Amino acid sequence: MTARAIEDLLRELTPQVLGALVRRHGRFEGCEDAVQEAVLAAAVQWPAEGVPDNPRGWLVTVASRRLIDQVRSDHARRERESRTAAEVVPEDVPDTDDTLVLLFLCCHPTLTAASQTALTLRAVGGLTTAEIASAFLVPQATMAARISRAKQRIRAAGSSFSLPRGAEREERLRVVLHVLYLIFNEGYTASSGRELHRADLAHEAIRLTRTVHAQLPEDGEVTGLLALMLLTHARRRARTTASGDLVPLDEQDRTKWDRAMIDEGVELVKASLAGPALGPYRLQAAIAATHAGAARAEETNWRQVHALYLILERIAPNPMVTLNRAIALAETEGPAAGLALLSALDGDERMAGHHRLLSVRAHLLEKTGDTAGAYEHYRRAARSTASIAERRHLESRARRVRP
Amino acid sequence: MQFLISLHINPAVLDALTDEEKAAIGDGHAAFIAALKESGELITTQALVDPSQAAVVSVRNGQPVVTDGPFLESKEYLGGFYLLDCENKERAIELALRIPDTAIEGLGVEVRQVMFADGQLEA
């Protein structure tokens, strides 16, 4: 087995081994550390000595030993006498897949989004603290502190290792999906330096969402989120130039889109829309699928895009959605209609001075022929964004319409 | 999101503080650093030497020109900074408000988001 294949296997086994351990011993915090150590041991040992016949069993055994060592040394410290902790090394490995339970635990509502994403990537994704720190461009010590604090909080909240039920389950699943979405976005919006690492986050988010989808194939929002990720990720090779400049959707070379990924995404969208109620991820995926269906930008079915945004606006009102609807409206009814809709956002505090509002207004002003207004708004938008790639793009737009 | 909290100091204002006030500022920063480390939000923090020790460098006609002293003649100078990684701008502001300098007239605390980062952070 290649080093890469071993790495993939370890990442896949991490949540299963952690689940088995927590089921047996409780204490999520200690188990998580023990599994991380066992996985590191395997990463060193397996490439040199070969992968054991039962890799999952090997990891459970090694992690259990680590956990027992840990319990013993805690014990010794506390009581200064060495009373042996019961040695429980499991011979059998339970078959249940606890990935979902772990995800619910890592996305505990008492944690901040930053802690939820970090803990999810480590405990469920099987990434090391160093890898997570490097993906988020923070020092390892910062990330280690964040993860350990998150685990303490989960312990303090006294969560049980089981799936929440009923309405709570629904609510908690939304948090899980949001965390997966955040991980994906973190990779997708890579704007500086180490794009490679950050693209891995998008890949990782897709992998984790696939796992959730496999366990909850009937949930339309899970399906929708997976579709949205695939349809967005399919455009990755077309959305930047070789020099890292952003290419907007209507100027992308659509032959560079990943067809297989789009086909999979479109199939998932169809399946998700067949369900009873509509949700925001399904609708966003349907919008992405509509764009994917146009071989050229001019062939985009803007009426359908607009109709989908209208429904999205109704079920999940948000100024960003209105902003996107204004773009679609401008395509079907003309730029003046789009600008009129934008003026409805002027009073919204969340959008005040937001670079997206400024850049969309600039774009629509440009279409009406108001180059002076477009120039001014492109320049203001360029100053407001926190992304270098986006700033460069907006500055070049400003130069193009300079009066 | 990463934010730089820059601390703008005024040497005259600092000189006018009592020893107790100075010690309270030091303690306040120590407590702030400890809390940030514990929450996993601190990337790094550094304090700079007195602005009189600065050197301004430029190249004119291919020749280096080095002048002692700060670039801007001003009452306030950059005294140091905190580099944080936190949830959003609201959180960065909430954290910045805990810095003891904010309670002293004449000292400035400024919050700005980081746009680009590279290099080794592990020192």
Write the layout of secondary structure elements.
The complex is a heterodimer of chains A (403) and B (123).
Chain A: H1 3-25, H2 28-49, H3 55-79, H4 99-106, H5 113-124, H6 129-135, H7 140-157, H8 166-188, H9 195-215, H10 220-233, H11 259-273, H12 280-292, H13 302-315, H14 319-333, H15 335-343, H16 355-368, H17 371-384, H18 388-401
Helix pairs in contact in A: 1-2, 1-3, 2-3, 4-5, 5-7, 5-8, 6-7, 8-9, 8-10, 9-10, 10-11, 10-12, 11-12, 12-13, 13-14, 14-15, 14-16, 15-16, 16-17, 17-18
Chain B: E1 2-9, H1 11-15, H2 19-39, E2 42-47, E3 55-60, E4 63-68, E5 77-85, H3 89-96, E6 108-113
Antiparallel strand pairs in B: 1-5, 1-6, 2-5, 3-4
Domain RNA polymerase sigma-70 region (chain A): 10-74
Domain DUF6596 (chain A): 172-272
Organism (chain A): Streptomyces sulfonofaciens
Please characterize this protein's 3D structure.
- Chain A: GO terms for molecular function: DNA binding; sigma factor activity.
- Chain A: Residues 10-74 form the RNA polymerase sigma-70 region domain.
- Chain A: It comes from Streptomyces sulfonofaciens.
- Chain A: This is RNA polymerase sigma24 factor.
- Chain A: Pfam families: DUF6596, Sigma70_r2, Sigma70_r4_2.
- The complex is a heterodimer of chains A (403) and B (123).
- Chain A is mainly alpha-helical and 403 residues long.
- Among the domains of chain A are: 3-79, no CATH class; 97-216, no CATH class; 217-275.
- Chain A contains 18 helices and no strands.
- The termini of chain A are far apart.
- Residues 81-89 of chain A have low confidence and may be disordered.
- Chain B is built from three helices and six strands, in the order E-H-H-E-E-E-E-H-E.
- Chain B has helices at 11-15, 19-39, 89-96; strands spanning 2-9, 42-47, 55-60, 63-68, 77-85, 108-113.
- In chain B, strand 3 (55-60) and strand 4 (63-68) form a beta hairpin.
- The model of chain B has no long low-confidence stretch (mean pLDDT 92).
- Classes of the chains: A mainly alpha (403), B alpha+beta (123).
- At the A-B interface, helix 5 and helix 7 of A face helix 2 and strand 2 of B.
